[in-house]
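Lab notebook: predicted structure, single chain.

Context: the supervisor wants predicted structures on file for every construct in the current expression panel, including those that have not yet been purified. This is the next one on the list. No modifications to the sequence; it matches the entry in the shared construct table.
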Amino acid sequence: MKKIVIVGGGIIGLLSALVSAKHNHKVIILNERKTPPKIPYLERYFAINLLSKHVLMNLGIWNGISQKCINPFNKIIAWDSVAKSVVTFNSQSISYDYLGYVIKESEMIKSLLDVIKQKQNIIYKKNVILNDIQDKPNNYSITYNNEKLNFDLLIAADGKSSKVVKILKLDNNLRSYNQDALVMNVKFAYRDAEKISYQRFNNGDVQGLLPIGDNTYNLIWSTSHSNSEKLIKLHKKDLIKILNQDLSSYISEVSSVSKISKFPLTHSHLKSNVIGNIIFIGDAAHTIHPLAGLGLNMGIQDVFVLDISLEKSSESPNHMDSNFLRYYGELCNTQNTKIMNTINFLKKFYETTFIPSVIKKSLVGIFNDNALLKSRIIQEATGIYTLRNLSSRNYYQTHY
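Prediction complete. Output recorded below exactly as produced.
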């Protein structure tokens, strides 16, 4: 049994703790917050892909989430208002019932904490202030609240403003997308019988709509700082008018809209997910534009890789040796770089003015008609490709 210290008490930190405990290690969670963070005014929602669902099922989290708080979708319709092009992704393309599920953040955290309370080898500490981290062969330790704690492995899962990254003075290549994400719930006049997620591109703006029940969607609108300031100050009826101009032709008339939350969008990526006996996971290692809804899923994929890495290390007489660290680091970097490059390419493709609209429309049309290529993209985005290639077990049955 090794001592694993996890910094961060969010979804990724809690999942990392459960994975580590599953392999019979002693786990100590250090959480700086008294309670889980929430977006002001609004409940936060996440689109969970099939790989993420597998991880949640495997750790006993899925069944603890209220079914009324899980909204599946089997189709994604994405359109470019400028190029007048449309792409449709359907779960039937990969012989699955759904492409993903929309879940409340609070429900996930509640289920996670319920499972963690049952684990005798997990200690959860709140109100932690980190003071120092030592990462030397004769001194692997972290100091918090002026108390020193030795560790065999430290997992930094403390988000995009990672205190671990700051204490170690690491360069995470942080840069701004020069956009804000406006988050709101939008109610439409008519109920959509199909379970569809929508994505609208318009001159750099991205509007992603996730079904959250009845005829209501969670809207994540990525736009410039100046436009976000204008939109957030609008009277609701004026905002509804704009939303109807943007969305009514594909969905239906907007009948109401909630309050709006706003947060800046940034890109970051550590050159390595491993430094000494410290590994970085989730937003502490990488942040990405929300246009594909894969941010949390990338973090859960890191947890999946951690699980596989710990399983492999248990086969070695020297648990958590350099081979374990190298395996985790290389695999995470390969998987995450692929996703991040794809998302950044899509963002640039849809916002660039150098490619004429007619050519964009033609290229999108060719892609939309290519069943094999679309199937591969769907497998990558849902995590099924990763499951099939990395898992030794048959976790990807069609009932997902």
